Amino acid sequence: MIEVKWLDSAVFYEIYPQSFKDTNGDGIGDFRGIAEKLDYIKELGCNAIWMNPCYDSPFLDAGYDVRDYYRAAPRYGTNDDLKALFGEIHSRGMHILLDLVPGHTSWEHEWFRQSCRAERNEFTDRYIWTDNTWEAPEGMNALIGLAERVGACGVNFFSHQPALNYGYYKPKPDKPWQQPTDAPGPRATLEAMKDIMRFWLNMGCDGFRVDMAPSLIKNDEDRKGVIALWQDVRAFLDREFPDAAMVSEWGEPDKSLQGGFHMDFLLHFGPSHYNDLFRCDRPFFGGGGDASEFVKTYKENLVKSGGKGLMCIPSGNHDMYRLAKYIHGDGLRIAFAFLMSMPGAPFVYYGDEIGMRYVEGLYSVEGGYERTGSRSPMQWDSTENAGFSTAPADRLYIRLDPDSGRPTAEKAMADPGSLWHEIQKQIRIRTEHPALQSRGDIEFVYCEKDSCPLAYVRGGGGEKILVVLNPSAKPAAFECGLVPGEAIYCFGGGLTAKAGVITAPAHSAGWYIL
Ligand code: NOJ
Ligand code: CA
To answer: In a 3-state reduction of DSSP, which class is residue 218?
Structure first.
């Protein structure tokens, strides 16, 4: 695999395009709105963007139900507008990943319509169909009764998202409709997906975040089949687009990185213990929880992935509750001091930098359900609709946080003591020290069950940096032979080091040169 240099110092910002900035008053964010706010993102310090799906779609799952992979959704703009956005991003020295949804399409996709026909055609094997209308594929929900053909079609997520057919790793002999991965149907699906990647990479995007990356091949318990599939994709990219960066929604870095992804997310599902830190009854950064299981799993992953590739920890995303639902005040600053000092590329979910809240009690919008409250419009300023849109309030894509004291970017930027400025400072310092960046190594020096602080040493570029995080309300001490030097970042007061014992003040975070 060819390394992608810009990932070494990348700090991502996730944009949910619907909710970012509306420039034509229809109540929905658009490409031009994103272009207008690039300087804001850059000023925060982020130099890369992941944008959620922006393709033509009936939007029953916020665009994760693609109707035409080759066409930007008209509500965001045209393909030319998107190309222009790529240009604006690159002219600022930034990069952008699009969201690739390879596992399923919308049931309105033309491939699916053709696939439903009784007469054999090019798309008959494009999706996973059984040969019995009353029998769903094992382990999947299915669409039945929509097609002229006989069979049930497996779905990956919602009922309107038929599963594309990349084959079965171990097809069962008594189920002839389970095709091996090298059968013509599955091969054609994969080639079609490569064509889509080719199209957008040629247009100027810098790579992809891949939706549900481990799910493509069925009956593939150890993921051997899907790892081989992604290796095939990586070989194609190495040949044609060696600079294309890939991050997987997978959550098992030992497998995804083997598949040729540069980065994998640690997520709110799967084995990572991500929630222990940020989203549970007693999250570690809420001041009283346990980080030890997270650290144990993290260390195991480091060993299993052989130091290859990046494990990325997001502040949140469009699928989880907002960080600020669980963590408040100083805790948010300390959580970001963690995110910005860990290996891998950090991902900031839009609005988390100003402490945007989870909006309770909303009806589901575009398949959001409980996720809807994390997808509300970005709060820019104190003008109408928080500066998001000039549409009447009831026409906004999702209702705004109704709280009159809601945070806004304008207020945050005007207040030197805000979370926004804290994160800006953290990113600036990260950017100045390769040891803190994506590829610097990490050694945990203190992490005990139900206890604070969390301490680790980052190394790289000839430097070693000690990070000590104490989200608890009491000073926290640990035995350690290290002698902290200059504080390059300090929140909540500095360390005291005496006779081999380091003490961190309550609610503090610091990064120290060793
Ligand atoms: C994961 C995406 O992040 C989520 O928003 C979507 O609903 C499902 N995959 C289905 O594509
Ligand atoms: Ca708009």
So the answer is: strand
pLDDT 10s digits, 17-75: 999 999 999 999 999 999 999 999 999 999 999 999 999 999 999 999 999 999 999 99
Ligand of minimum distance to the alpha carbon of 397: 2
DSSP 120: -
Q: How many whole angstroms separate alpha carbon 126 and alpha carbon 271?
A: 32
Ligand 1 neighbourhood includes 14 CB (under 6 angstroms):
no
76-120 pLDDT per residue, tens: 999 999 999 999 999 999 999 999 999 999 999 999 999 999 999
What are the pLDDT digits (tens) for 116-148? 999 999 999 999 999 999 999 999 999 999 999
Q: Which of 50, 54, 59, 64 to mutate to test the pocket of ligand 1 (most atoms within 8 A of CB)?
A: 64
Please give the domain boundaries of the chain with CATH numbers for all domains: 5-101+186-430 (3.20.20.80), 104-165 (3.90.400.10), 441-513 (2.60.40.1180)
Distance separating alpha carbons of residues 279 and 292, to the nearest angstrom: 15
| Residue 176, preceding peptide bond in cis (omega within 30° of 0) | no
> Looking at the DSSP assignment, which residues form a beta bridge with residue 248?
210, 264
Closest ligand 1 atom to Cα of 101: 11
